[in-house]
Amino acid sequence: MTLLPGDDDTIVALATASGRGAVAMVRLSGARAIDIARALGAFGGVTGGAVDPRRAQLVKLADPDTGAPLEQALVTAFPAPHSFTGEDVVEIGTHGGAVSPAVVMGACIRHGARAARPGEFSRRAVLRGRMDLLQAEAVADLIEARTQAMQRQALAQLDGGLSRRLQALRNEVIHLEALLAYDIDFPEEDDGPIAPERVAAAARALGEALEALLRTAPRGAMVRDGALVVIAGPPNAGKSSLFNALLGESRAIVTAVPGTTRDAIEALLDRGSGHLPLRLVDTAGLRDTEDEVERLGIEVSGRYLARAQVVLACGASMEDLVHTQQVVRERTTAVVVPVLTKSDLRTAIDGTGDGDAVPVSAETGDGLAALLPRIDMAAQAHTPGDTDAVIITRERHRAGLTVAHHEVAAFQAAWNHGALPAPVAAVHLLAAREALAELIGTVDTEDVLDRVFRDFCIGK
Predict the structure, then answer these.
(1) Could you write out the DSSP letters of every residue in 61-80?
(2) What are the b/e assignments for 315-325, b being 16+ CB within 10 Å?
(3) Rg of the Cα trace of the chain?
(4) 10 Å Cβ neighbour count for 335?
């Protein structure tokens, strides 16, 4: 990739969250990183000293202009190319808080560094071949992960799982292009012309592989944000109590007054390894009302129902439960799980009711252990697959794969029907290859880099 103006500057940033804390980390990267740190008193100071790579040294930093003490810090050097960015990197561990790291950063800037832009350290790692674009995105996903499932997916992507899958698909495109090139350029060789069925079979297999990876996008969204589980039912059906019981804390106001919940309340339930995270939503009671505020809340409920993957249709009686299911099924394509709430107020469940319903009591906790597996099964039914398999988790991935799949499909149609000469049909394969290369970051596309790194935090 081409270096742009500023890519050779030595940069500095606070690599830990600002605010009160025990320690902070100031990170330098660039050709002058070690010299700047040495000017502040590291590695033997201005008199010079040996740099012991990757070994933390406790030093007293001082302003070289005034001699004023700056900080007592732990300084570690990572000489190029064996560093995160592939450049010389120095990490300065200071005391936490607002002042100590700011003082050290200010001294670094006065002596030749400039403040880093968001994501610039990771961007340099990509530019210098320390990671590809997908792995850089995984670094951001690790930082932003709100669930263990997302953290595991980010670690797998950082390890190169998705990169290897996309590189294999790109190699399949190149193989298909090679078949065409051989047929076009060497039709009279000893092996003879390439059988059209061989090209068609390779294109078909490639298209199916791209489609299979594209189908993981909904599951990727679930892993990233949680399966959308909407709790719906009439007022006073125990929805908010169930919401709180599933979370194990009081997040929703629970009263005996119908219409208490006027807006949707969201919370993320993460139960760890082997489970999809659940994005629980408590909604306003479904009923006809003249109250303007409550009516707006019910409209919000309808919008959530339209997007839900799972709906818990709640009712405190069998009559309410049957009615709730009818209303809900008119508004959603989600998997509906009937929930008979307030089971502690009944001495026995009526055998004439809905045998599929899960009886629960938010008051005693009865039935919650049976309800959670039902929710898991419903979420799995909506987007089947292995949570730990290679999946795509970003819109950029989906868009790039969609382009590649479309181009391969266009090539298949042209080839199977003989609509275009082979050299012209091969243009579709070139477009597919470039779309996959852009995903991995093996092409020099500056606007792609800008889109990826603009949302990174400073210092990463």
Answers:
(1) EE-TTT--EEEEEEEEEE-T
(2) bbbbebbbbbb
(3) 29
(4) 19
Structure letter (DSSP) for residue 331: T
Residue corresponding to tokens 């200010």: 106
Cis check: omega of the bond before 338, within 30 degrees of 0 = no
Q: Which of 272, 276, 271, 266 is nearest to 222 (CA)?
A: 276
Task: Please report, for residues 2, 119, 127, 186, 261, the alpha-carbon distance to residue 168 in angstroms, rounded to integers and kept in the order given.
Answer: 25, 28, 22, 26, 51
Distance CA 193, CA 288 (A): 72
Positions of the chain with pLDDT lower than 50, given as ranges: 190, 192, 253-261, 347-349, 351-352
In this structure, what token pair is assigned to residue 131? 């990671």
pTM of the model: 0.77
Residues 42 and 48: their CA atoms lie apart, in Å, by 9
Q: Over the stretch 145-159, which tens digit does the pLDDT of each residue have?
A: 888 888 888 999 999
Each residue's pLDDT tens digit, 92-136: 999 999 999 999 999 999 999 999 998 899 999 998 989 999 999
CB 433 within 8 A of CB 170: yes
CA atoms within 13 A on the CB side of 254: 15
In contact, 286 and 324? CB cutoff 8 Å = yes
Q: Which amino acid is at 205?
A: A
How far is Cα 440 from Cα 216, in angstroms, rounded to an integer? 18
Q: What angle do CA 86, 70, 73 make, to 5 degrees?
A: 50
Instruction: Give the integer Cα–Cα distance in Å for 67 and 46.
Output: 12
Task: Give the CA dihedral 147, 149, 151, 154, nearest 10 degrees.
Answer: -140
Alpha-carbon distance 377 to 310, whole Å? 10
C-alpha–C-alpha distance, residues 266 and 308, integer Å: 13
CA–CA dist 108, 295 (Å, integer): 58
* 8-state DSSP, 1: -
> Is the bond into 81 cis (omega within 30 degrees of 0)?
yes
Q: Computed from CA positions of residues 173, 175, 176, 178, in that sequence, does the dihedral angle turn out positive or negative?
A: positive
Distance CA 252, CA 145 (A): 25
Q: How is residue 342 written in tokens?
A: 């307030």
Contacts (Cβ under 8 Å, ≥6 apart) of 226: 147, 268, 269, 270, 276, 277, 278, 279
Distances, alpha carbon 395 to alpha carbons 136, 214, 220, 401, in Å: 15, 11, 10, 10
φ and ψ at 322, to 5 degrees? -60, -45
